[in-house]
Design a protein that fits this description.
By secondary structure, the chain is an alpha+beta fold. It is built from six helices and twelve strands.
């Protein structure tokens, strides 16, 4: 396996200097699972055993072992000694030590991780199928202005715009930590290809618009990823 350390980035904004955003990506299908799986906790092993398909089980073991290795490097401890717990929405967080905020997303065997101190962060990764924009998903979950913007594009541009919108929205929901309690049609994001954008609108809290930045990524050929991050340290 070869990890990819994407450049540490911060939003192009003046003011207080926030902690840098660290990004890691890897193709976990290209490695032996045994080394990574050795650091898993007992509950993680039990969770892995519940997967019926061997490939799904191995991918979970690799993802969690890879995450432990990254967190261990930041915390200065072996991967097997990283203590994880789960929040109310099932997200893993570092237990009891004030560790970095982090978010992980996977698509097939690819995985993307964002870490930062003192700011909330969320990440999403999808395999962008060429030429396919899911109109049914957009109608059900996108805000009206996002649907209109998607329909205004030429057909050949809609699939990429759909994936940019979807990953930005998912990353924001993960960063907020509210799960499905935050309706996807209650806020708007950009569908454009700009590397850095901000939240377009939030019906639940207008102050959110200037609070969040979005970083668009293509960490692997054929995949689209987005990071949602608070623009300044708390």
């Amino acid at each position: 396996m070869r990890d990819v350390a994407l450049p540490g980035l911060s939003p192009p904004r003046s003011g207080r200097d926030p902690a840098p955003l660290h990004l890691w990506a890897a193709d976990l299908d290209a490695t032996d699972a045994s080394e990574l799986a050795a650091s898993l906790s007992a509950d993680e092993r039990a969770r892995a055993a519940r997967y019926r398909r061997p490939r799904d089980r191995q991918r979970f073991e690799r993802r969690r072992g890879w995450l432990r290795r990254i967190l261990g490097a930041y915390l200065g401890r072996p991967p097997g000694e990283v203590r994880l717990q789960y929040d109310a929405h099932g997200r893993p967080i570092v237990a009891g030590c004030g560790g970095p905020h982090f978010s992980v997303s996977h698509a097939d065997g690819r995985v993307l991780c964002a870490l930062v101190r003192g700011r909330r962060v969320g990440v999403d990764l999808v395999c962008a199928r060429p030429g396919r924009a899911d109109d049914e998903v957009a109608r059900a979950l996108f805000a009206p202005a996002e649907i209109a913007a998607l329909r205004a594009l030429p057909p050949e541009a809609r699939a990429r715009a759909f994936h940019r919108c979807w990953t930005r929205k998912e990353a924001y929901v993960k960063a907020r930590g509210k799960g499905l309690a935050l309706p996807l049609d209650a806020f708007e994001v950009s569908l454009g290809p700009e590397p850095w954008t901000t939240l377009v609108r939030c019906a639940l809290d207008p102050g959110e618009r200037t609070r969040w930045g979005f970083l668009l990524l293509e960490p692997f050929a054929g995949y689209v990823g987005s990071v949602a991050i608070e623009m300044e340290a708390a």
